[in-house]
Batch of 2 targets.
Target 1
Amino acid sequence: MQFPSRLIEHAVEEISKLPGIGKKTALRLVLHLLKNDVAVSESLANSISRLRQEIQYCEQCHNIADGPQCTICANPRRQHQLICVVEDLPDVLAIENTGQYYGGYHVLGGIISPIDGVGPDELQIESLVNRVAKPDSEIEEVILALSPTMEGDTTAFYLTKKLHPYNVKISAIARGVPIGGELEYADEITLGNSILRRRNYENEH
Amino acid sequence: MYLENISLSCFKNYTENKLEFSADINCILGPNGSGKTNLLDAIHYLSLTKSAFNTIDQQNIQHNCDYFSVRGVFNQGGSRTKVQCSCKTGAKKIVKKDQKVYTRLSDHVGLFPVVLITPYDTDILREGSAVRRKFMDSIISQIDHSYLNNLLRYQRLLNQRNQLLKDFATRQRFDAELIASYDEPMLALMSTISRRRNEFVEQFAPVFQKHYKTISDDQDEVAISYQSEVISEQFKQSFLANHQRDVTLQRTGMGVHRDDLKCTIGKRSIRKFGSQGQQKSFVIAMKLAQFDLVEIHKQFKPILLLDDILDKLDDHRITRLIEMVSSHHFGQIFITDARAERTAVILKQVSSDIRKFMVSNGEATLVENSISRD
């Protein structure tokens, strides 16, 4: 694309680095900013730079936070005997939105995949083990809420091995047919797994 | 099951061509380099969503064109299915069944099976074990869909594990728990995969032996057997005991990715001790056994593609093959030959609906439509 100004070119270049934004969309955003008040652009630039400078990660669970501790860890009304291990931040939001969970979290920051250069050292695994191993730890159960992919399974397997020596219950989220979905549209692997790991009806209802 | 017709656009040396086929025998005749094999390859595309000769789809686009498209109609017991396979430059190939685009190409594989016999088949014997595993895997995958899934999962675990072993070497550190996270699921998959392969070879070998006896005059005893370290009872222990070596070599040294098919003639390796003729008969018998096995599992006959085999086989073997054709062992057949007179002589004895197509410079035309039934 040809631009009449180096400044525009540079701005388009930077904005199109964002996910989901191509050169044309970036140009539209740049022109939009130019049409509006200077204050709009300044407020945007300011919020971005403050975001980067002031954002913190919770010392305990590595969730996003405004201070050293996130709102979930700081909340005395949550059940801190439970921690739910997730891959990344969006997973915390997804589980929070269910309204079904009142425990704490632990954000790994990724998933073990040597091909992508991610090993246990790149993730918050040691800090999870330390949390559980602390002598005054009140943690009773660790729930592994990782994606049902091969990498997710490997990570879950590794965490189970690492947490095995400590006196905690380790569980994993159930996998199966989506609620409200038609059985005939479920994919074979999921449906096959649901049949193999069927649950006892009477005990749970 | 048979292919009623095919239309090609900008596929290899075909610019635009539409052909109606016989449900029995179709002869594709023409000089070398005219495009006979390309026509077979187009049929291969419709069946397996890929070329039998060139794995890079883009290279099958005609020079100076920006796409290719192959369309065909399969008839299965009266019900017709349109299949289309197309590829644009710089884009992924698209396969459609009755106008619906496949999200997973593997869903199409196995619906309209073909068996291709080509002069390159002896590579199965001459090259490394990977080719023989591929031969075995492609047949089992067509019969058993969960097998393909297990195989893909295993391959992914193997890649991850090998990368991990390289990381251990660079970081000079070994993490027993981390490697165990790969070992356990891999061991489970390996036992499933090797059990399935073993089952397959047990079914395949006797059919193969029967065909070898028919095709060749040889009195020598031929055999195919499944070779795998995984079958051994101590495999799990030896696999786990092999960690040290894996770390040194920076790859997984044991597993189903090292399986092989042992092909022997008179108890000796066919690759080392078989004559060229014996090797040819050996692979043709393998392909015919593939045909029979697919037929048993699908309950219908696959399409048979015979590429240039009249040229490469002696009269005796050709006679035997044609006897099988006459006795209606096969369903629809496509056969290429550079010498029209020879084909005419050979097929004289066969009473079927035979259509002959003459190919010249990327254009095939129907030249003879001889319906001779007695």
Note: The first strand of chain A starts at residue 56 and ends at 57.
Target 2
Amino acid sequence: MKRRTVMALLAALALGGGAALRRALAALGQQAPEPTMAAIADTLFPGGDGLPGASALKLHERVLAVSDLQDSIGKGIAWLDKYAASRGVDAFVALDEAGRLAAIDAAFASTDDGIRPFVFALRQYLGLAYYADPAIKKAFAYTGPPQPDGFADFQERPS
Amino acid sequence: MSDEAKWDVVVVGAGAGGAAAAYGLCRRGLSVLLLDAGPHFDPATDYPLTESDWETRGFPEKAGSKGKVTFAPGQKLTGQEPLLASGSRGLGPLVTNGVRFMDRYEHVRGIGGSTLHFTGEAHRLHPAAMKMKSRFGVAADWPVEYAELERYYSEAEQLIGVAGPDSQGARWRSQKFPLPQHPLSYAAQTLGKGAKALGLDWQANSRAALSQPWNGRPPCNYCGACNNGCPRADKGSADVTFIQAALATGRCTIRSDSPAIRIEANRDRVIAVLVGRADGSIERIACPNLVLACGAVETPRLLLASDGLGNESGQVGQNFMDTLFITVGALHPEPQHGRRGLPNDAICWDFNAPDAIPGVIGGCRFYNGAGENELGGLAAFALRAIPGWGRAHAQSVRRQWGHALHIGAIGEKLPNRDSRIDLDPKERDRFGMPLARIASSLAEADIARLRFMAKKSHEVLAASGAERIYETYSSWDWFSATHVFGTCRMGSDPASSVVDPFGRSHRWRNLWIADASVFPSSGGGEAPALTIHALALRTAERIQKQ
């Protein structure tokens, strides 16, 4: 895939819309979405081995600000909360780590209208932001800026 | 409004063709106004490759740097093509509705045009690929021989500072490349071991990137980010080569942000070009000679929008050929970190001749695709190469980062009746000019060529030690064209071509075309910029002699 295609997805992380979502959810009687979105983000990109999870980087807040996702966020959280209820707990955030992972797995596998595109989009948005974050990149070799030094060792086996 | 010409020649489009034409005209003593619809780019400030978020920026977009096009409906995909279907293990299939995805025409509008973001391969066309009709019964013959183009190729290579190997087989040379070839990157060496195991010749690619200082420009430092724009100006994009040389003559005037929207003509000559201004007004510029170099999408658009100027043959916009490509990524047991080094630094020409692929006419070439595909950096790798999510995904990303190998292939795309550029009947730009509409269709021969390209790519990856394919993207189901050709074909017969063998309109005596729209055939996967330069230099010489 052309990198421009992939990176265009990241450009969609525009500001605006988070407040509207909170107002919409409040009108429906649901709780503010931040805790649930943080839990989803950490289930998808939990970090580990010394790396922070997605919520520690506040990436869930950036997702909540994507205006194009407002409608699907509300429906997606509702779907995950319904899944949690089917497992005997109040909401997605009340599941343990294994339970949350099972819920996300179920969402990716579901044919229910809208839930799979929702978690797929979250994987894209959160994943691009997570692995482009300097705090994550510094743990990986050869992720620094190309310039001004270039790669003097380009002919050699990677160090 | 003025009827008084201020320049000897007006050139529309400051990319590969327009820049070379302007240089060729200026160095022969003619004054030139070089127009482009897009902005200036400053390599020092517009390409922020020292920033930590470099990979999320890509090539910068500035106001006016992207033209708008529309697409005709995509081709219905028939049959199962598991080797060609686009998608990755991480992202899944690109196309799920059975229709070819008409996604994008990759280009840049600006001073330097698409060379600003090109990889910078510098290829001469295979001589046999210029005789597709007479030798193989397809497409059309070039009305110019390789032997005649050779000195223009050499002139362009000298000005750019092309680095290349001693020999490229059928592409005979009157002199060596001006600069020695670049060393191969580690990933290219790994692929080379596989290619050699299969008996293939894997050699250094000829590149418009400096292997030594040249004309005041520094050598490449192998950062791998050619497609993001080269801040060092070692990449031979038109803005730092032909345009600088044209400006040095003192006879070239450059005007950015100036889209040509209509051409006026009278009797047998064009007399003026109408150009849009930033404030929405329109300027009329008289032109004793007019050279169009807007590329194979925008040049036919401008002609068709000028009441079909130059379309006496009905061939303007026809014979559209786009990029027939495939790229395959795989994971290797050993780390490669292929973003180090020049993108496309190694190439295999073994199947480039028109009759080199068994059972299908039209050639192809293979190359190290790591650089072009790893510019997305860690994030793109994590999402494309590694499926899943959660802790298992994170651990795989840690374990596999840097292990990717990519091989790419580009092949001949033959013209067909269903591939063309015309004017969109509804969509218009801010000046009321209809947008270009792109229609593209693959014939069975194109798909057969793609199958061969895919199969051979898999073989090379396997022979290189790669163990698991994680992605394939191909033009079978994804229109994402960078190289486009053919929509103002050159030829000797006015009934079947738009311009004569020197790029001049058969009908309009001072109207010339100097871009890839004049290509009668696409070649067997060669990058077109160097051939565009050579043709434009030849056209410029002809204009001066006239």
Note: The helical segments of chain A are 3-11, 18-27, 34-44, 59-64, 70-86, 97-109, 115-131, 134-137.
